[in-house]
Every structure is written in structure tokens, then in C-alpha cells.
Amino acid sequence: MPGRRRLEGPDIQPGAGQVAARLGGPQEANAVAMFDEIVRAGGTSAAVPAAELEWARLLVRQGRGADAIQHLEHLILSYPGSAFIPEARRELERARGAIPRS
Fold first, then answer.
1. How many CB atoms lie within 10 A of CB 57?
2. Cβ-based burial of 75 (10 A; exposed 0-12, middle 13-18, buried ≥19)
3. How far apart are the C-alpha atoms of 69 and 29, rounded to whole Å?
4. Per-residue pLDDT tens digits for 20-63
5. What is the distance between the alpha carbons of residues 44 and 84, in angstroms, rounded to a whole number?
6. For residue range 73-101, what is the model confidence (pLDDT) as tens digits?
């Protein structure tokens, strides 16, 4: 269809990583590998901050708040215009213990 952008590779990987992360167990390692690949590749795609946000959420669920804070701070500083910034800020406050989990 004209005017529609086809989702490929990095565009869908954060979603695939999110699914893998939510499955838990050995799938979490697959999620981390996907998030790491996207974040390392960098670029201007919305996939990069989305992957970093989901990676941080996974780290929080694993009880690795300090690691999550590093990812969230990196996301906020590296992609200040991203639509994911409000969510990243909320997650950062949760990871720091300022907002209780709901």
C-alpha cells in the first residue's frame, strides 16, 4: 500500500524481545541478546529507545535495579526527543524506589 511503511528487522525486534522477556526462563536470555543487538546498533529508529526501555524493565523484574538505572539514564540522555522518555522517567523513579510498584 502506498504511504505505509513496512515493519522489518529492528522495527519489530523490541516487540519480539518484549514477548521473550515476558515468557521468562531461558527466553529472557534471548530477549537480552535482542535488546543488546538493537541498542549497540544505535541509530535514529524508535526501536533503539524502545529496546533499551524494555531491557531496563526486564532488569528491574530480575532485581537488578542498578543496571536498569544505567540503561534508563542512557536512554534519557541519548534520545531526549523520543516518545519513550516519559515512560523511561517513570521507570527510572521506580528503579530508584521513589515510586512504589503498582
1. 21
2. buried
3. 19
4. 556 566 767 777 888 888 888 888 888 889 989 999 998 998 89
5. 13
6. 999 999 999 999 999 999 999 999 876 66
* Inter-residue contact 42 to 48 (CB < 8 Å): yes
| Chain length of the chain | 102
In this structure, what C-alpha cell is assigned to residue 35? 535488546
DSSP letters for the chain: -TTPPPP-HHHHHHHHHHHHHHH-TTHHHHHHHHHHHHHHH--SSTHHHHHHHHHHHHHHHTT-HHHHHHHHHHHHHH-TT-TTHHHHHHHHHHHTTSS---
